[in-house]
Amino acid sequence: MGLLAANLISSACCFVPLPPPSPLRFQAKRSSQRVLKAALTSSEKMDSGGQAAPVSKLMEFPHLTAAHTDLMLYLIQTVENGLGDHLLPSTVPTDVEYYENKNGTSQGTLLIRHGIPSSPIDFMIASWLHLKQPQGGAFNITNIAGYMKPSNDIPHFQFELVQCSPTFLIFFLDLLPRTDIILHPDYLTTYYEETGLEKLRQRLAALPEVSPYFSSSLYFRKVVSSTGILVGVKCEESESKRVEEIVREEIGPISKEVMRIWMELCLNGGRELEEDERSLMEKRDLMIKRKAIEMDLSKSMPLQFGEEVANRVLQVIRSAFKTA
Amino acid sequence: MGLLAANLISSACCFVPLPPPSPLRFQAKRSSQRVLKAALTSSEKMDSGGQAAPVSKLMEFPHLTAAHTDLMLYLIQTVENGLGDHLLPSTVPTDVEYYENKNGTSQGTLLIRHGIPSSPIDFMIASWLHLKQPQGGAFNITNIAGYMKPSNDIPHFQFELVQCSPTFLIFFLDLLPRTDIILHPDYLTTYYEETGLEKLRQRLAALPEVSPYFSSSLYFRKVVSSTGILVGVKCEESESKRVEEIVREEIGPISKEVMRIWMELCLNGGRELEEDERSLMEKRDLMIKRKAIEMDLSKSMPLQFGEEVANRVLQVIRSAFKTA
Fold this sequence. Notes:
2 copies of one chain form a homodimer.
Chain A: H1 5-15, E1 27-29, H2 34-48, E2 58-60, H3 66-83, H4 94-97, E3 98-100, E4 107-109, E5 111-114, E6 121-132, E7 138-148, E8 156-165, E9 168-176, H5 185-193, H6 197-205, E10 210-212, H7 218-223, E11 229-234, H8 240-268, H9 275-305, H10 307-321
Antiparallel strand pairs in A: 1-2, 3-4, 4-6, 5-6, 6-7, 7-8, 8-9, 9-11, 10-11
Helix pairs in contact in A: 1-9, 2-3, 3-8, 6-8, 9-10
Organism (chains A, B): Cucumis melo
Pfam families (chains A, B): RCC_reductase
GO molecular function (chains A, B): red chlorophyll catabolite reductase activity
């Protein structure tokens, strides 16, 4: 569930003439598919030590463009290949893995996999949402995020791509800083300067169709890092192919590279924190997650999916976020 | 001396084809002028209790456009009228009040006035710089900043307007947050949401000539607030009148309103801090100032003005910033 998802979407509505909707996840259906089998290989292994866990659901992206789908599959596969050994199988209940509103026009999926005790990763969360808009059209939101444990200071990973219309995207890609940069400029050096993230931000910013996107939440503007990518991609009405080209040739390679950088940081394990640093980190992490849920998700989910479904989904997210 | 001045300028050089220069101040000349007399009235009073201190220097802006000059005079006058009673006379030595490079092509001015003991203001600093560029043309940088004491949490005021060419400006206007917003969202509510700063940012951002400006320093990107204005204003080569129009009709009114908001906060005195909060605030404030000097000013000043002049000016700034 994207940290900025609901907020991005509410804001997006001010941008394109559509009304406030809500969050997101991977589409999961009840049939099996080759790509998911591959993606679940190591969680099956972890689950039962030889005895395969049931392949529960399928990742499909029925509403996305080919470029967007390919990118999602690549990122999921990459997490699986690179960090699968770090992650336990998803324990999300079936009716939260996939959910929809009463008339089935809006759909959502959710996958959460916790890190094993020795991993620096607390959990990974992924989702897609298809949100039918009353005036026609739909928002398609896809998200992958990796949250770290408070025992290390590795930035959280955030990827979120929102197709608001065939010619307008919002894209958020960042490693979220976990400390007050003003007091800790060396954190900036280690995780942002030495990793070359700025080059990637600049590459995307140079495209004429791309412009900085300002979240409507002043709080989230401060959550984003110095090299965070938070942009709108807007093409002429006749140019939906150009949007797909930008996803395939720019957003895709940049996302893959940021994910690669983050995974490398995870595999190195990060810096071990002292007790007082750890408790501050925990407090800070919690504030960000709490803000995401209380300010955005808890308002937009019920509007989009009704109280009952929203409560069910939010309970699972709150439990993973430890904000319950 | 603008916090981001040197950095802005170094970055600006990547933007317009000009090489790395440095900082800024009010032009002060050795003759008297009506406008300065007015501006110095209350500092004269403070200085000697009845016996007027010598009117030392004059504020002129010989290199600026009329709109830019008018705005500077308005802002200085407004500080004088609204906060003059809070401020002691400037103690900047004459050869730092006004300085120039060997051949006199680059000039700078500096004015620093400390707050009286009962004021929440630590000091105000103002400056202009005229920096001749080797390839022709010049940068004109003007700056007014108000730094607060660590006994209160009122944001620092920052105004900086840089004319890089007749058709390109960089503009920085902000109330700098003095706490980690992630842990203290109520700080955001008090000083940024309730003051309506976002509306002002949006007003300027809506102009087609205006686009977000990314400082080359990843550190300073984190210093800026959520509603901070950091933009480039770029017009067609034939449109230098349009730049002046934007200064007069947009940048002017917005700057005046942000200054009014900040002065009101100062006059209310802000929240009194506990001892531990105060020491954290002091540490944070110091980091920002130190970064400004060590990363930027200490590199760019000697290049622009030579070692001797630069040392003289930097010593005065370091002493006010308490980073010496």
